[in-house]
Amino acid sequence: MLFLRLVFSPYQIEIASLCQRIEIKPNMAEGALATLLNQSILDIEDGLEYYAADAVSCKCIITEDIEDFHFSDIEILSCEEFFKKHLHL
Predict the structure, then answer these.
(1) Which residues pair with 60 in a beta bridge?
(2) Per residue in 37-76, pLDDT tens?
(3) Does the N terminus or the C terminus of the chain have fewer Cβ atoms within 10 A?
(4) Residues 2, 8: Cα–Cα separation, whole Å
(5) What is the distance between the alpha carbons of residues 86 and 6, in angstroms, rounded to a whole number?
(6) Average pLDDT over residues 69-87
(7) Where do the DSSP E strands lie in the chain?
(8) Arithmetic mean of pLDDT, 79-83
(9) Where are the domains of the chain?
(10) d(CA 60, CA 75)
(11) What is the DSSP string of 66-82?
(12) Residue 75 has what pLDDT?
């Protein structure tokens, strides 16, 4: 760990730790097309996130912009809501 501290910033170490605990999924062309065709989606990035999550059967999307996902069939939670519901904090 000392070596990591000398080479990487605390922020980079936290990101590396997070990446070991999550799985990052790609977004396919189908998700991009679905985003463009869905007139309920006002922000393209939200649409891409939604369809990427949907493609891999995510149970929830964690965001602080909950209202941006008004079109979602997937549960949308804030960070605090996620921690309370799933981590019992």
Answers:
(1) 75
(2) 999 999 999 999 999 999 989 999 999 999 999 999 999 9
(3) N
(4) 10
(5) 34
(6) 92
(7) 60-62, 75-77
(8) 90
(9) 2-86
(10) 5
(11) GGGGTT-SSEEE-HHHH
(12) 97
